[in-house]
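Quick one before lunch.
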Amino acid sequence: MTTLRNLPSVEQILQTEAAAYLIAQFGRPLTLDAIRFVLDDTRARFKSERTTALPDLDLILTQTESTLTAWTKPTLLPVINASGVILHTNLGRAPLSEAAIRAMDVVTRGYSSLEFDLESGKRGSRLIHAESLLQKLTGAEAALVVNNCASAVLLVLSALAKKKRVVIARSQLVEIGGGFRIPDVMIQSGAKLVEVGTTNKVRLSDYKSAAKEPTALIMRVHRSNFKIIGFTEEPELKDIVGAAHLAGIPVMDDLGSGALYDTARYGLAHEPTVQESMQAGADIVCFSGDKLLGGPQAGIIIGKADLIAKIKKHPLARAVRADKACLAGLSATLLHYLKDEAEREIPIVRMMFLTVKQVRGRAEAWVEELGQGSVVEGESTVGGGSLPGESMPTFLLSLKVKSAEKFMHALRRNNPPIIARTENDKVLFDPRTVLPEQEGALLVGLKNILKS
Ligand SMILES: *Cc1c(COP(=O)(O)O)cnc(C)c1O
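Model of the pyridoxal-5'-phosphate complex:
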């Protein structure tokens, strides 16, 4: 009769060559954990009589290896984005430029002058690193980089408006995505929310009457992920600033995307730029590093020197500070703008800049390489909370498959995973968002899946 006594012991298992190989690969403590886990599981199943057969040594080793593989498998993996959404928040937003990647590599590989003044040999500040580039690019007096734009908004409100009134148009009390709601952030910061106007209309007179009472800030939030159409009204930023400044109140503009260039150049709608907000006289402007700017995740705050100084001193500034990799990557990205080479160097700007003819050429080459599928017209979108409802013409590789759902699943299981989109029983691939260096891997993956 088979009893649990027939089960190999941990010691016996460790004697094998296969176990030595697992230890070399995964380390001794984790391998031991996995062996015990497999043995415990086997005993439990045997006792509950779900099985009467005991696994032999080989099977136990195989199960140990699968356990170790499952335990150590990374959850954050690079993927190929063939969805045609340029800034896909779920896919990590902006891929970085070569220079940004190199800058992040060198500062993280060793020590750096993060908070060390090389001139004096004394302690320096991490806050200086992207500041002069931001000043040059935007004309702002001062700048500060934090973890992301959501924390930038929270920090600004906490530092400048705690327990004080902040005036905002009702039409701008938005949820940006991922549960980031402007009214909630206001509560969190301790600011007192004062809504003016209606859902669709706000007038200058609304701001003027609200400004009669002592107010810390007038806040404008860019509606970056939806549009209000029909009968709408909103004063221009420069007029809001004019009225606010007459009452001695500073204006904060939460731009979100924060393009440094005019998206209308790429046949898209015009997205308000950082420079425009500065020219309109905004005292504080916040925007993301990884939306239309095309850099690493960051929140950028620019504006008047006295306000920025106050923000830098607030305790939350320490809690939401940017790390050295971010500061290095962001600086390298900003430098592309300063050197007027963004269209050549920054991947997401390059993607927007691609002509339909170029995209079509790539889609045609894919069809030829695969020996199947067709090239169809379609649309790419910007996404990532930028330019809602806007798209640009593109050409797609279209594959007719038996089950689009099963095919998409197989694509996601590919190494690297491929993210496409479907239309009825067709699976569509947009060359615009596929990085040129990923094209080979995409085609190999597609060939394998089509064969199987
Ligand atoms: C996207 C967005 C944010 C949040 O930016 P993150 O960098 O994702 O934190 C804040 N405000 C606006 C208007 C946005 O569009």
